[in-house]
Amino acid sequence: MSFLQIVELTKYFGGIAALQKLNLEVKRGEILGLIGPNGAGKTTFFNVVSGVFHPSRGKVLFQDKEISGLRTSQIAHRGIVRTFQATSLYTDFPVRQNIEVASRLNRKAGFWSDLLNTRFARLDGERVAETVMTILEYFKISHLKDELARNLPHGYQRILGLAIALAAKPQLLLLDEPMTGMNAEETEMMMSLIKGLRERGITILLVEHNMKAVMGICERIVVLNFGKKIAEGPPQKIQESKEVVEAYLGAERYAH
Amino acid sequence: MDRKTGIQKAILLAAVLLFILLPLTIVEDPYFLHVLITMGFSLIMAVSLRQILMIGQLSFGHIFFMAVGAYTCALMLKAGFSFWVCLPAAGLLSGILGLVVGLPTLRLRGAYFAILTMCYGAATVPLIGSLGFLGRWTGLGDIPHPTIPFLAGSRQIADKTQYYFLILGLVFVTLAIFYRLDKSNFGAECRAIAQNASLSESVGIRVTRVQVTAFSIACFFAGIGGAFFAPYMRILAPEAFSIWHGADFLVFTVIGGVGHVLGPLVGTMVIGMLNEFLRGYPEIQTIIYALALISAVFFIPGGLISLRFLIPQWIKGGAPSE
Question: B76-91, pLDDT tens digit by residue?
């Protein structure tokens, strides 16, 4: 059974093809990097896979079942969770509640049990609260649990974004530029956190501009430009690829 | 039970006792009871409207669902049904209508949803006026009083005091239910959706389903409010359901504060009392009322119940943190 299969994926915005006949496969348990210059279609790709957009043509298959066209929450139920390029949190909630409310997929109590506060709901709530603390401890932010999300420094906010995604029990995690705005030390920490997630059995698809991070943690890299795949392979091969270098530096060549 | 919760429960108990004993001991003036009863069903409208605000949406059409409840109850009472059948039926019909209206409209983003609610809110009065079985513009009259089956001889509710206790009971149940809603995971998800809908979707919260559920519940209680309104007023005229009366409920909710279930209670009572006080000064009534509302929104944007956070900070001498 394939894990994530992208078949001839095409997405038009008006007359512009953001993605063109993209074919791609993500294998279970790997960390796959997705790189490319700005405007290459990386975030559009994430948006299509996570259900924000419908594909214009082509299909997205997760565990051999088609998910193209499903709503984002339905795709999350299937096991695909994404993070956001711009920091996206529950700014008015404390850190602990951010994780708690994102634990919807971890809860067993239904609408009525929750409303009537039955014993089943209370026990379920306690179990979820323990999981929330475990997640906070894993990311080493449990000391911030009562701090409002909007008061956190930037680096911690990015980590919280990752923790929120983890609370949704993903099988496949789509990380959209998680290292944005991080210094070298924070980047190192994020890299080891991501590797740690893979140890826990989560497959990761990483979009990132920080090349050191990408080359450091991805086993395989796919390069996009103008909505098309222009290269694919292990980091070594990508670094040596003429097409990739041209794609990133191409504009400079014509600048003079 | 820690000290803070203990104090809160004591205050709550005292308040409940006060409301129960009020008409029995101190107050017998029917006008004063009328004011309280009006606050009562306004409160049911305000606190149910609050639930819509809690999912991050703004509704100017809540009065429509009150009208649905009111006319349903009126027609059923005139047809001979017991009030205790009419009440839940009216609520149910309003709730189902809320489901029907909410499903397509809640997908719309903020401003568009609000405008749509304004449309059906404003359409309420002309709609009633055009329907023969609702009495058109002359109104629907002779609505029978509710009967209490358990007391000896099945007495009819006839005087203000009895209506007061009826609305007191309904208010109590309504507040309890919305309080429970707030404390549940469902309530937390409503607040989450209001803050960040796309993040909520991505972690598996069924945003549309939660919004439609909250909206339907709000409409159900609007129907309950209307169902009380019908026999109490004895006559229903379309003008009672104008969009401006609907705006009153919004004012009570926002001024009182959206952050807590008791916010609309505070808002309804404070503005209600302000209105009564100003009745003696017709010349400046409108100006003072307007100034009061503008000041409240300007200085206390979180509503009057947010003062419970702000006042301790003012006393400590620091500026309130935003």
Answer: 988 888 889 999 999 9
Q: CB contact, 8 Å: A164 with chain B?
A: yes
pLDDT at residue A254 in the model: 46
A2 in contact with B, Cβ within 8 Å: no
Whether A76 sits inside 8 A of B195 (CB atoms) is: no
What does the DSSP 8-state code read for residue A94?
Answer: B
- State how far Cα B110 lies from the chain centre: 21
The domain ranges of chain A are 4-253
**Which of left, alpha, beta for B58 (phi over 0: left; psi -120 to 50: alpha)?**
beta
Q: Are B83 and B74 in contact (CB under 8 A)?
A: no
Q: What is the CATH number of domain A4-253?
A: 3.40.50.300
Phi, psi (degrees; rounded to nearest 5) at A44: -60, -40
Write the pLDDT tens digit of every residue in B280-290: 888 888 888 88
pLDDT score at B28: 67
DSSP string, A188-233: HHHHHHHHHHHHTT-EEEEE-S-HHHHHHH-SEEEEEETTEEEEEE
Report H helices in B184-318. 185-195, 197-202, 207-233, 243-256, 263-278, 285-299, 307-316
Indicate if the pLDDT at residue B218 is higher than 50: yes
Distance CA B95, CA B77 (A): 19
Measured between beta carbons, which residues in chain B are less than 8 angstroms from residue A73? 200-202, 204-207
Total-model pTM: 0.91
Residue of A104, A113, A127, A166 to mutate, testing the B interface (most B Cβ within 10 Å of its Cβ): A104
A88–B192 CB contact, under 8 Å:
no
Give the residue extent of every domain in chain B: 25-240
Which residue of chain A comes nearest to B178, CA vs CA? A115
| Cβ partners under 8 Å of residue A207, min gap 6 | A33, A34, A35, A42, A43, A46, A174, A175, A176, A177
CA of B1, closest CA in chain A: separation in Å? Answer: 18
pLDDT of residue A256: 43
% helix, strand, coil for chain A, step of 5: 45, 25, 30
